[in-house]
Structures are given as C-alpha cells and as structure tokens.
Amino acid sequence: MAQGEIQVWVLRLSEPWRLIVARLSTRTKSRETARSPTRLDSNKVDYSDVEMRRSAASRRRMSPGRRLAYAIGLPILRLVLWALNSTYRHVRPIGRDIAERIVADAGQAYVPCYWHQQHILCTQLLRSWIRSGFRACFIISASVDGEVPARIARSWGAEVIRGSAANTGALVLRDAQQKMREGVSIVAASDGPLGPAFEFKTGTVLMARVGGAPLVPIACAADRAWYMNTWDHFMIPKPFARVVVAVGEPIDVPRGASPQEFEALRARMQNAIEALNQESREAVVDAT
Fold first, then answer.
1. Tens digit of pLDDT for each residue in 145-170?
2. What are the φ and ψ backbone dihedral angles of 217, each rounded to 5 degrees?
3. Is residue 55 a contact partner of residue 143, using CB atoms and an 8 Å limit?
4. pLDDT tens digits, residue range 215-263?
C-alpha cells in the first residue's frame, strides 16, 4: 500500500475520535464561559457580577454544597443573634438626640464609623435607624465568606456593596460615591477589614470626602462579653449583659482637604470613637 493511501486510512480511522475530542473541548469551553465573569463587550467587564470582584488568588467559589450550608445555617444564625439581642439590657443610649437628628436628615448621606470589634451592637443600632427610614449601605467582602452578612444586611432593608479596599478598592470607592450621591449612607468598620485593630483608616476619610458625607463616630460597651481570638478581638456580649451604644457629633470632611488635613481628620475620628468607648464603659459601670 502506498504511503499516501496509508495516511488517508489513518485520517479516516481517527476522524471519530477527533470529533469526540472537539465536542468535549466545546463543552468545556461552554462551562468555563458560564462560570467566567460576565462581559459587556470585548473590552469592558461587568463588575456588577460579584464573581468578578472575588480575589483571583482564592479558589473558593459558591459551590452547591456551600449554597446548601448557607441556606441551612443563615436562619439559625439570625435566630441566635435575635435571641441574644432580645436578652440585652439596654442602658439609655449616649447621643440619642444626635442619632435622631441624623435619621431625620433625609437625603443627606453620612458615614457611620465604628470599630470592627463592636460590629454586633453597632449594627443593631444601625438596624434600628433603618427601620426608622435611614438609608444605609454596607461594604461587605466579595469573598464567599461575605455571602451570609450580605444576605443579613439586605434582609434588614440595607443596600450592599461587595468588595474590599485590599482587592477592589477603586470599584468600592466608585460605588460608594454613587450611593452617597443618591442620599444613601455608607457604613464603615473603620479599622477593617484586617486591622490593625482600633486604628482609623485614612480610606474612610477619603470615601467621606468624595461623597460629601460627614463622618459619624459610634461606639458601645457591655458589662459582660466574650472576646474572640481574632485580629479585632471580636466582642459578643453575653446573654442578659448591660449594653450601651453611643453616637457622637458628625464631623465634616471638606472636599478640598489636603493630605495633612486628611491625617488630622483621621486622628480626630479615632479620638472621637475612643472617647465614646470610654464614655460607654463608664455608663455601663454606673448602671450596675
């Protein structure tokens, strides 16, 4: 048999396998396309897709198993938080008149700020504001760990921006500016997302400046609490603990603030939160 005829027969015999490989390759590409971030065109990425905002360094994704675990665990977590909060003995809040003035100032965006450690009590305060008509938006990590807090915030009636300063800072700042223009306040745990603890971040001052929103210091205290072994020493007030929340006067951030003024404002906010912390602790002691 001539060499040319052998080549023809080899090609004919391999044709079915070539077609199978081609089909498998097409299916793989289709699946990858389905999982890949949505693109508006060849050059522009649709960042409204949370998958696009997740860190490329992490391989953790919303698998079916994780979705099931969240679906089961979320109602349990909400029940536990509700049960804990219902047992707390709230001492008269500090700065109630300031809080009422902020909530009544419809159309004006603010940036409520607190330490990450005090997330439970401070967000419960903000939840009460939301019930009174305060429009709030939380910045929550785009990672899969952020799915549960994002769902809880939305269930309160708040809006959510997914992302963080570490991975999608420019996108978060852009989205926050748009929300504040609409009169939506941006909530900030101002020493997060990774610390150092109790150190107010300059980025929060920048966010307030671009949105024309005053900074609002918030703090709290509890007479009995668990403290987690985490970077922020996360606080969980124990059942039936006496708790106090405190709100300070809003601090304006001039649009034309210089870098030196940024540092002064950062230090001023840090001192304001720490002063409210001290005042809250004293109020708890006085109430016992």
1. 888 899 999 999 999 998 876 666 68
2. -75, 135
3. yes
4. 999 999 999 999 999 999 999 999 999 999 999 999 999 988 888 899 9
Contact 278, 214 (CB under 8 A): no
Rounded Cα distance, 30 and 33, in Å: 5
DSSP lists the bridge partners of residue 162 as 140
Both tokens of 161, joined, read 């921006």
Q: In the structure encoding, which two tokens stand for residue 278, read together?
A: 């001290």
Predicted confidence (pLDDT) at residue 128 exceeds the cutoff of 60: yes
40 or 242, which is more confident: 242
Distance CA 49, CA 27 (A): 23
Q: How far apart are CA 110 and CA 229, in angstroms?
A: 32
Q: Which pTM was predicted?
A: 0.79
DSSP H helices, the chain, are 3-35, 50-53, 64-87, 96-104, 119-131, 147-155, 165-181, 202-211, 259-287
* Cα dihedral 251, 255, 261, 263 sign: positive
Asked if residue 147 lies in contact with residue 62, where contact means CB atoms within 8 angstroms, the answer is: yes
Distance CA 165, CA 171 (A): 9
Q: 218: buried, middle or exposed (CB in 10 Å: 19+, 13-18, 0-12)?
A: buried
Q: Give the separation between CA 126 and CA 188, rounded to whole angstroms.
A: 11
